[in-house]
Amino acid sequence: MKLFNKIKCTVALSAVALLNGFAFAGDGVEQSFYPYKDGFPTADKIVPGLVINKDNADIAKDVLDPEMLKQVKAGWVEITVGKSTDFILNQAYIDASKNNVGKVTLPKEKGNLEGGYLAGRPFPEEPDLNDPRAGEKLAWNFQFGYNWGDGAAIDPFYWRYRNMNTDKVERELKFDFHFLNWAHRVNDEPLPEITPNPSELFRSIYVHVQEPYDVKNTQLLIHRYQNDLKRDNAWLYLGFQRRVRRLATGQVTDSFLGSDIMIEDFEGYNGRISDMNWKYLGTKSMLLPFYNHNEQALTDEFKEKDGYKFVDFHGKGSCYPNVTYQLRKVYVLESSPIDSNHPISKRRHFVDAQTFTLPRTIIYDRAGKYWKSWIIGQAHPDHHLAINKGSGVSVDDSFGMMDVQAMHCTTGQFKGIVDPNLNKPKMFKVQYMRTSGK
Description:
This protein has a domain at 151-436: Lipoprotein localisation LolA/LolB/LppX (outer membrane lipoprotein receptor (LolB), chain A, Clam). Mean pLDDT is 93; it is low at 1-25. With 438 residues, the chain is an alpha+beta fold. It has helices spanning 2-33, 66-73, 91-98, 134-143, 430-436, and strands at 51-52, 79-81, 151-163, 169-181, 201-211, 219-225, 233-238, 243-246, 276-288, 290-291, 298-299, 310-311, 313-314, 320-321, 324-337, 344-352, 360-365, 370-379, 395-403, 408-417.
């Protein structure tokens, strides 16, 4: 009888521990995806409607990164504070993240996640400054984030190359971009992986130039593998040559089509986790370019049949998206290349803690000097195109990449469309580049 009672007690305690574990796991996911359930961040004098400029910039010293603060003080740009809003991600992605808690682990050395990762945010727990690999966990959360969902398109996508001193537009390119997750899918059939997938791809990006004539039909295709230790493959189709060539590894850090952007810069960081050292530097409240697209001062310059209007630009050289900024919970994350021949020494990413997008990144050259300023505007899907409503995707909506050493910038104006029908698997194959380039 004593033995029976002891066993019963042990089972009961185990059940309590298990339930407590589930409660803890649930708390971690809740905090990760709903950081504002108890209210949004606040900062002294930082209120919606405030315009931060060179005359009052010091009131924002705690909520802007140092380089952005310097640019405001120099009169390069003014920042208008908007009302903070919740960017709730897709529910299926949140549910998949719950299944990861306590299961997914980092390998002993840089490489692939262990523990049977399937989908969702791998590490929804709050990062710990005492954890030497906290930065790596944040990087994986970004890599397997819900940016563009399981697949989306930007069409059209306007890039402009600008002189920051003269405000002159030197060149304009018109693209369509397409994104497809082959694996770790949560929302669009088939789930959790598109088959057949013999190369075991994780994600592909396909880029097509529509205008101008001299680069029309130039195409870029990127394959990222589920095995993070396997180097990405990339191919470029040059319309005037009518042939596909594989890009060498180093070319992803070259200027892409004469812009201020590397292929590795796409979406804030477009590379393997194993290519970088990652360091978590802390959590803070910051102003980031999050907004409701339909409430911004949009430009009438481009004429879309559906009446869609694009974000406008302002500030020095018209290099800054003219959008409102919100106070957000932010993880400060630093990445530094393992390859000593890399053209940069480090990036400092300001990671939005709710969406795990990279709306703000500072880039330093090989000598450690401030080189580039990267801003990617994030639009709420429920205040954008009707098709995006309810998608749970934080929509990349505008960008400004400033080379502050050369005083030059590249800007981007997006029409982001979360529609799986625009991203058929056949588009992400080399043969498609040949057939569509004819």
